[in-house]
Design a protein that fits this description.
This protein has 500 residues and is an alpha/beta fold. The chain folds into two domains: 2-226, Rossmann fold (3-Layer(aba) Sandwich), CATH 3.40.50; 230-495, 2-enoyl-CoA Hydratase, Chain A, domain 1 (Alpha-Beta Complex). The chain is 40% helix and 17% strand. The chain has 20 helices and 21 strands. The strands form five sheets. A seven-stranded mixed β-sheet has the order 3-2-1-4-5-11-10. Strands 12-13-14-16-18-21 form a six-stranded mixed β-sheet, sandwiched between helices. Strands 15-17-19-20 form a four-stranded mixed β-sheet. Strand 6 (143-144) and strand 7 form a beta hairpin. The protein is elongated. The two termini are 42 Å apart. The mean pLDDT is 95.
Amino acid sequence: MRILMVMTSHDQLGNTGRKTGFWLEEFAAPYFTFLDAGADITVASPRGGQPPLDPVSDTPEGQTDLTRRFKQDPGAQAVLANTRKLSQMKPADFDAVFYPGGHGPMWDLAEDPDSVALIEAFYNAGKPVAAVCHAPGVLRHVTYNGEPIVKGKRVAGFTNSEEEAVGLTKVVPFLVEDELRRLGGLFEKAPDWQSFVVTDGRLVTGQNPASSKAGAEALLKLLKPAATRGIRLQRRTPSYWRVTFDLPPLNIFGPENIPQLNEIITAIETDPQVKVVVFDSAVEGFFLTHYNFFAPLEESTKIPPGATGLQALPDLLVRLSRAPVASIAMVRGRATGVGSELALASDMRFASRENAILSQWEVGAGLVPGGGPMARLPRLIGRGRALEVLLGADDISGDLAERYGYVNRSLTDAELDGFVDALARRIASFDKQAIAETKRLVNVASLPSDADIAPEWDAFLASVQRPASQSRIKILLDRGFHRPGDVENRLGYHVGRLNN
């Protein structure tokens, strides 16, 4: 569980000549709440280094058990004194972000483009965002699907009456309550100075310093289900395994998922008992989709080659194809890009007639597919149909995929689970050596060589950097790519209209 805390670097209280910054309780309470829950915490600020402390928050009457704990903890003090620069933070490295308040964020973080982009990236990736007291003001320029992120959402923050009580109504650049209401937020509040936290979907907001611990606890509640998400391996029996993709909301696969998949593929290769593995999805509507285009390119290029000598993703797929185990892709929902490539690397593919979509959409966005489909598809469905799939870049339904040979069978959604489970259990009842040797000999006759696979990943990385693809990806992102909605649901349709 990796949590990013974002602090202010601003220390001037308007034109008053007084100092401001972050509120001590609003750092200490969530910091120790996260720490005690076992979280890995990174603290960042716009300038890096020691963020300014609002001196008013450090008076004797303002101390709590957790602020006193902070004063007695040199490790926590060192973390705060050495915050990372906000511009260097990568949302892919974290599971959630938390913004402590104090008046400082209203001047810097509320207007900081790095902060705005960071919050949008977290939210678009399905990760929770939390802010307490004045920090909900940092949401003022953040959008989601072209609208203010708070529009139509229940939110809380420092109230007008609380600002009036501290005598700063005419000093602050805006009033948090008024601003959240102006943006369409459904503002809620408790009596002044009482703890009050609102959770609406992935957004957590708290009213005041007393809400800091409760805000952190609310964020942890959102992360508890996420702690079980990712790519899950379930050993149904010693010989029959399931691998489930659970990367909501869209089952997007990125460099951050490669280590986990590598561990699973290694286990499949080396376990002496497993005979069959089924790949499925826990995310409704999505088997496994495309690569994560929010991940910086260097996150992919810095991963060392795998055991085959191929780059990481092609290596994993080649090893799956060669593993002495029968692999089955049970495709329910969209298998686009990486999802299609994993299905092609599996030994068998079975699709939901009503709900499966397979696609190599990349050419429509100016990209070259990178996970091996140019080497695998022609061997599976023939050269002409492979080029139709790859160059047409359109959605292929389960029934059409069956007619082309893209999948073994298209079954009704009601039949799919039972059929795949029965087949897997049947194979799992047979002798492993016979399974492995038969598969090895089929591989000799049918699998592409490493030399056929290797150029595809290099071509993908080169294509990502071309102006034509970057322009097309930007248009897709502007229209809703990487977010739940019509673009992801009908990606083939939308890549065909990028010139419109």
